[in-house]
Amino acid sequence: MTLDFITNNGSYGYQGHEDDNPIITMKKGQYVTGYSVGILYLEDCWYPVIPGNVANLSTYDFPVRLKVVPGCNQERIHAGDPTLLADIIRAAKELEAEGARAICAACGFFGNFQDKVAAAVDIPVYLSSVVQVPWIKTGLKPTQKVGMLTADAHGITPSLLASCGIMDPDICVVKDLGKLPEFSAIIESRGSFNNDIVRQEVVNAAQEMLEENPDIGAILLECSDLPPYAAAIQRAVKMPVFDFITMIRWVHFATSQKPYYGFI
User: Fold this and answer.
1) Which superkingdom is the protein from (predicted)?
2) How far apart are CA 189 and CA 74, in angstroms?
3) Burial class (CB in 10 A: 0-12, 13-18, 19+), 217
4) 136 vs 46, 133, 147, 181, 234, CA distance in Å?
5) Single pTM value for the model
6) pLDDT of residue 3
7) Which CATH number is 130-243 given?
8) Domain locations in the chain?
9) pLDDT digit string (tens) for 136-149?
């Protein structure tokens, strides 16, 4: 094994009791270990980041590492401001250098930059929950669609969808939450919200979406603030609900495989 291989691939190290080799090699430039997923997040947001939120570390039963993208606020990311690209790539490369095995993000509108960031780094990139749509659609009947609850329907553009691998926007039904009285506290950075009311608003929105579109076969929560309400939505609509956390868990386990032990 060459030094270049060790240097570039050391982040996939694993120490278990079955290992006979006492020599442990560290990736150069990495100091913090024990995590696989690095998560980019926004600057200048002001609202409660509750358990279940992508940016709340108690959401996970495994370690993740977060990194802010300087100057990246809601207005700019929702609009897909192209001047953000350099800073997003820079932050992604920093996570890669620090040992992340994959990169996610804490806003669905990072999907505007999914294809370009994936091309710029040498580890897998899944910036938006929206990248799950093609996989979700594959499991549905040909006539069924994916219902998407979003914080900003105007931001779900054909360009964002294409960046996330969705070439046919018609496979999605998009429902806007951004103008709901209490949920809008997140969009407007009002500093607080009534969590019970937010939960009921998003559940009602999901039910309305299904009543208006009975051909929906699964729901995707675009917004990184929606996973806290995924269970309530699922109980109400009785169908699969995908969100940022289903994606991050999938990425984590794919990049943190451990040996199995048991009886045969």
Assistant:
1) Bacteria
2) 9
3) middle
4) 32, 5, 11, 30, 16
5) 0.93
6) 41
7) 3.40.50.1860
8) 35-129+249-254, 130-243
9) 999 999 999 999 99
